[in-house]
Amino acid sequence: MGAFKEFLKKTPAYSQMFWLFYVAEKLSRPFRQKGFAEFREDFQVQELLGGVKTFVDIGANDGYHSSNSFYWALRGARGACFEPVAATFLRLKRLYLFNSRVACRNVGISDRTGESVMVSLRDQSYIPETQDPNHREMHKAIHSQAKDTCRVELQRFEDAVQGIALPHEIDLLTIDVEGHELSVLRSIPFDTYSFRAIIVETHAHNLDGGCVWTHRDLQAIYDLLSAQNYSPVRTTRGNTIFLGAGVSRSSMSAGAALDSVRADARDYSEPLVPQGAGLASRDLPRGERP
What we know:
Elements: H1 2-9, H2 12-16, H3 19-28, H4 41-49, E1 54-58, H5 70-74, E2 78-82, H6 86-95, E3 102-105, E4 108-109, E5 114-121, E6 124-126, H7 133-142, E7 148-155, H8 157-160, E8 169-175, H9 181-187, E9 194-201, E10 203-205, E11 211-214, H10 218-227, E12 230-235, E13 239-244, H11 254-262
Parallel strand pairs: 1-2, 1-8, 2-3, 4-7, 8-9
Antiparallel strand pairs: 5-6, 5-7, 9-13, 10-11, 12-13
Helix pairs in contact: 3-6, 9-10
């Protein structure tokens, strides 16, 4: 079934008809409460903020599967989604074919402008020079098939949002770029744009709560956001949620948040997956299982 699903994803019809996901979810929304984020981050943000009217999704993938922003787009939020891989971007663009409130751009966000090589492994895409070696080994243990490579365009945040009707105070920023998170954050002019909540992929916990991967730039990410007056308030199985100054919350201390993410984390100097060993698929988040 998994092999057929991957084959289906590569057919032109799958991408061209991707708008059906949006229409189906839009029609069914009055009859059920459904989240789309991998670890219920959309419900967590609902609890913390009460709602989202504007969002920016960096590393949006196809915009639907394991999305931190699709829940809000269905509810009328205005937003911008950035996805650098052309084949994946086509699905994202088709998803929002009938929703003009969400702008989609086929670029990656970085602290430098230019082109880069992007490596794709099933639904995971990364820039080799910023991909965490431990994260790469974790995925190689599960996905043994050949990788695809392509060239992608990178832009700084303020250049990428040109022409998009975004306010300077945005409710939600979500970043999932497989190791490039620090470069994304460095590109954002926080003196121009502020966010009520920021979701950043910082770790991976298995079902038992053990940490199988921690972002190599974790401390630098916390330091950068702390300097901009963002505080960690929640950690899920894969992400940390930060809130901006002035947003009412019961905040974790940065130290406590780091400890919760690093619990049982392996040393970066050692391979995450020993030679000849493998991780069980139950150790990976839902969207990363075969």
